[in-house]
Inverse folding.
């Protein structure tokens, strides 16, 4: 099982970024997937999750209405569309399946 995140970088406040998570080594389309993040000096926290079909999503209150999780099962890909970014969104973002984490991608929100 391998998860590889990409798409992080520097964004301005109120800007947008889209993160991707490429999954290999398991039947991606059968499983719930999640996004987490860890800011400097803080514990890793839940951002959101998506059901196997993509029909159900859950979000942390801190990102609700600003972030959207989606997936393309045919490509074994999950996405995190982030809009109206805030400096407090600065963190390393991870995708997760079961007990497996990706390596993370850094998102920095700063002017």
């Amino acid at each position: 099982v391998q998860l590889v995140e990409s798409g992080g970088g520097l964004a301005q406040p109120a800007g947008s970024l889209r993160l991707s998570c490429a999954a290999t080594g398991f039947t991606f389309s059968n499983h719930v997937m999640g996004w987490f993040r860890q800011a400097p000096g803080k514990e890793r926290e839940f951002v959101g999750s998506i059901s196997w079909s993509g029909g159900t999503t859950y979000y942390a209150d801190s990102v609700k209405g600003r972030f959207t999780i989606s997936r393309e099962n045919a490509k074994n890909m999950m996405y995190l569309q982030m809009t109206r970014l805030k400096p407090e969104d600065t963190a390393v973002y991870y995708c997760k399946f079961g007990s497996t984490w990706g390596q993370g991608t850094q998102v920095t929100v700063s002017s």
Q: What stands out?
A: The mean pLDDT is 97. The first strand starts at residue 2 and ends at 6. Residues 1 and 72 are 18 Å apart (CA to CA). The radius of gyration is 13 Å.
